[in-house]
């Protein structure tokens, strides 16, 4: 998920450099959404790992 966010961010930078502001804004929005989803998934996995570690002890 984070890889997709980086890809869309790079596309946004390239589109902005060439003057395609609409494409740049759209891909930046998509990259932001993918980044937030990746952060949420990371937090869920950390919480699950802590809970599983506590169950083993």
Characterization of the model:
With 57 residues, this protein is an all-alpha fold. The chain has one domain (2-56). It has two helices and no strands.
Strand and helix map with partners:
Layout lengths: L1 H16 L3 H36 L1
Output the structural class: mainly alpha
Helix percent reads over 70%
Order of helices and strands: HH
Number of strands: 0
- The total of helices stands at 2
Main beta sheet: strand number and arrangement? none
Total separate domains: 1
Low-confidence stretches: none
Average pLDDT reading: 91
Radius of gyration: 17 Å
Q: Note the gap between the termini.
A: 32 Å
Task: Describe the structure concisely.
The chain has 2 helices and no strands. By secondary structure, it is mainly alpha-helical. The longest helix is centred in the last third of the chain and has 36 residues, at 21-56.
């Amino acid at each position: 998920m984070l890889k997709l966010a980086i890809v869309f961010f790079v596309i946004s930078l390239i589109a902005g450099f060439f003057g395609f502001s609409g494409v740049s804004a759209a891909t930046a929005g998509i990259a932001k959404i993918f980044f937030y989803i990746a952060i949420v998934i990371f937090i869920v996995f950390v919480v699950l790992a802590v809970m599983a570690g506590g169950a083993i002890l």
